[in-house]
Design goal:
371 residues, alpha/beta, eight-stranded parallel beta sheet, 10 strands, 15% strand
Length: 371
């Protein structure tokens, strides 16, 4: 797959990271629907530079640009072997950058319509759409496209906030605090197939959580993460999402992470996930679903609040984390596509406290007991 699709550059990238068009991971750029239908990619990255659904700090409109910039350091698919998962997702999936949705500034409804149309174009060629936000209101538009193909979906929502305000946070029902309500109104999602991971802080209050309980929603707060652990929560969420559905959608808000790991977002909240916990969660979830019936979005990256961003020339702490999450997503999906649960990570053959004992694809090292 790699050489056939990406050409000679797949063997090794001899181009500096600051040279060339900064598509996501320096992937081929698909400019229009006709090209998309000709290439028929397995995965298409879509930018949704939109933040007119925000209610506190804007700036997520620049999220797709910052994530793309961060993705060039290093630059898969040419540096395509993932040391920790031991798999080359670009040897499994034809992956492209399908550019940005041409949003209409100030017009939420029209912008959402254009997002729905572009995501549906990817679904129509049986591709996996991966959306870069943009504020969290975009998820409604994306799921609306998903629901045109799949009658019943499962959903995992990873977020600091429940985003189920009946009329939005400030009286506008399509803002970034209401997308779960709008999705439920589509009729494609049953409460028993929904899980929220990561809520903390002060919103929403008990009244909205009562509504969620009445819908048969499941949620795990950060207190639950501390007490139950990532593995148990991921399994429960995956089991619920897979229960008698046609497809699965994951929406990940970057504010789920502690601001120490993701300061570049509109609504930072202390006591979030560490980057290590997030990677573990992504690896577990990404190997739990049928990759042919799946979609994903990553939202609320606002680079103007990020650290070491440098005007998005090559990303900052938050956009770098966002990029890595997507690479891990593709790695996990590619393992499932190949019908395996583990790749060939670079692990030590054994551990003696000294010496070079590394090998490729060796099982986890056994640590000897010490007196």
């Amino acid at each position: 797959m790699g050489m056939e699709f990406y050409g000679d550059s797949y063997r090794g990238n001899d181009e500096p990271i600051f040279v060339g068009i900064p598509t996501f991971l320096k992937l081929p750029w698909i400019r229009n629907k006709a090209e998309l239908q000709k290439v028929r990619p397995n995965v298409a990255i879509i930018g949704e530079p939109f933040d007119f659904g925000t209610t506190i700090r804007p700036g997520a409109r620049y999220g797709p640009r910052a994530i793309r910039a961060a993705s060039t350091v290093p630059s898969p698919p040419y540096e395509h072997f993932n040391i920790e998962t031991g798999v080359d997702p670009f040897g499994v999936f034809k992956t492209v950058d399908y550019g940005d949705v041409n949003v209409s500034p100030g017009d939420v409804v029209e912008s959402h319509r254009r997002m729905t149309d572009k995501v549906k174009e990817v679904l129509d060629v049986d591709g996996i759409p991966v959306m870069l936000g943009g504020d969290h209101s975009i998820t409604f538009a994306n799921v609306r496209a998903f629901a045109k193909k799949y009658k019943n979906i499962g959903m995992i929502h990873i977020d600091t906030h429940a985003d189920c305000a009946p009329q939005g946070l400030c009286g506008f029902k399509y803002d970034h605090g209401a997308h779960i309500r709008r999705i439920m109104e589509l009729g494609c999602l049953k409460g028993k197939n929904y899980t929220l991971i990561g809520p903390r802080g002060y919103w929403p209050g008990p009244d909205l959580y009562k509504w969620m309980a009445d819908q048969d929603f499941q949620w795990f707060t950060m207190l639950d993460v501390e007490e139950l652990g990532i593995d148990q929560i991921a399994k429960e969420a995956a089991d619920r999402a897979n229960d008698n559905v046609d497809a699965v959608y994951i929406s990940w808000d970057i504010d789920t992470f502690d601001p120490a790991y993701a300061p570049g977002t509109g609504e930072p909240e202390p006591n979030g996930l560490t980057s290590r916990e997030g990677m573990r969660l992504m690896r577990l979830l990404s190997t739990s679903f049928d990759p042919d019936k799946f979609a994903f979005d990553l939202v609320e990256v606002a680079p103007n609040y990020d650290v070491s961003d440098g005007n998005s020339y090559n990303g900052g702490i938050t956009s770098g984390l966002a990029n890595r999450l997507i690479v891990e997503l593709l790695a996990g999906l590619s393992l499932t596509k190949k019908g395996i649960t583990d790749g060939s990570p670079v692990r030590p053959r054994s551990y003696r406290g000294k010496g070079n004992t590394y090998s490729f694809g060796h099982p986890k090292a056994k640590i000897p007991k010490r007196n």
